[in-house]
Specification:
Blueprint: E1 20-21, E2 37-41, E3 44-48, E4 55-58, H1 59-67, H2 69-78, E5 107-110, E6 118-122, E7 126-129, H3 133-142, H4 145-202
Antiparallel strand pairs: 1-2, 2-3, 3-4, 4-7, 5-6, 6-7
Helix pairs in contact: 1-2, 2-3
Length: 203
């Protein structure tokens, strides 16, 4: 949030940016089925549903936002959360949304696998954010969320490596035990054959 007339954000130093209309193709909101308005916030082209306050970002635009702090500042300023009526309760229902571009149902994923923000993603086209989800993701990124995700991934890789090593040790132990059993069987078979031959000679 900035005072009117401020040239830079007092927290991060980013220049102010307002949402401006851009000539993007018209797409339907995957939730409300109404035409979304096309705007540009900072340098990112965004489609916004004025009914549900959801946002559609194409893959390249979202990737740029994830790596550009000025883009993040612009979106944090423009996508302020809407106030909920006092005492209103939110019911969380899981519903899969179709991609506004190809119409295929999008995958629901936990952004960065540990953010707790579930977004709808079409791998080939973009990401749909229900109200306030993009803001929550930007705050997650700016609070070191990517570093946390990387550390978690390293721990998971290390656990998988240890598990693989333990599995290899168990497999090697089993292989040795089977080899010893096979050798024992061969010795027993040899003794049995020798007894049979001895018995034949004696008789």
């Amino acid at each position: 949030m900035m005072f009117i007339g401020s040239k830079h954000c007092p927290h991060c130093g980013a220049a102010p940016a307002e949402a401006t209309a851009v000539p993007l193709s018209i797409l339907k909101c995957p939730r409300c089925k109404v035409d979304m308005s096309s705007v540009k916030i900072g340098g990112a082209p965004v489609r916004e549903c004025e009914t549900c306050a959801g946002l559609w970002l194409e893959a390249s635009a979202f990737e740029k936002i994830c790596t550009d702090r000025e883009q993040q500042s612009a979106l944090l300023g423009a996508a302020a959360p809407l106030a909920h009526p006092h005492g209103a309760s939110q019911t969380l229902t899981v519903s899969y949304a179709p991609c506004p571009q190809c119409g295929q149902l999008m995958n629901r994923i936990n952004f960065a696998r540990c953010s707790g923000v579930i977004v709808d993603v079409c791998k080939g086209h973009g990401t749909w954010f229900d109200r306030d989800e993009l803001r929550e993701i930007i705050e997650f990124i700016r609070n070191g969320g990517f570093e946390l995700a990387r550390q978690k991934e390293k721990l998971e890789i290390e656990r998988e490596r240890q598990q693989l090593h333990e599995d290899q040790l168990v497999a090697a132990h089993r292989s040795s035990a089977i080899r010893f059993l096979d050798e024992d069987d061969e010795r027993l078979n040899g003794l049995s054959a020798a007894r049979g031959l001895l018995k034949f000679l004696i008789d």
